[in-house]
Amino acid sequence: MSQEVLHIEEDKQVCLLTLNRPESMNAINMELLHALQEQVHSLRLRKDVRALILTGAGEKAFCAGADLKERSGMTQEQVKEYIHNIRNLSSAIEDLNKPVIAAVNGVALGGGTELALASDIRFAAENATMGLTETSLAIIPGGGGTQRLPRVVGRSRAKEMIFTGRRIDAAEAERIGLVTEVCSQEGLLSRCRETAEAIAENGPVAVEQAKFAINRGMETDIATGLSIESAAYWVTIPTEDRLEGLRAFKEKRKPQYTGQ
Asked: Running DSSP on this structure, what letter comes out for residue 4?
């Protein structure tokens, strides 16, 4: 994996992945796409990392989407391969067995907004701009945008945004629920780290099962969703962490969870 296009930093059981192509507004070329895929796959297997933050290098862009300069030189088959891979990347982020926080630190268009949509929690800087602008290029969102955006902001609003290719600012993104909170540019990463570290202090098996129950339950009727919740709950019962939580509560101390 190239360290040039994807910067990796780990601290307090939190991994920060920074898309590192600021000269191209952190647009996703094939090299960056493969680097992200490799890292997300690796994190799935690691118990020492309990939360992930995604952001972009610099102060202008989170991710401007696909690298259109690279795309212009692709054959139709190569374009299909790229779309297949970026769709799989978004699904891998959504299904990762630990929470993913998007720190949207500037422009997030097309695939950039799709990366944010695949994340569990989205914080945006005041200068952030978001949108699925693909129809202006005579294509449609291909990384899951047509499916995830309506589930977040509603069908009608998602159609209006996608059909027009309209860009929205951070304030509107917060108002419609596309992002959880708007922060100052200088305070964005700190806010994301604060949230990630709070998550990392909790039982990792419980957090994983909570994410699973929410993601799977939201795609079905409530009766089936409640069954999914019950099954996820049962996974936590035989864990050492559950007993540690009870001991820590009784002893009035902070629990030390191991993921066991």
From this structure: T
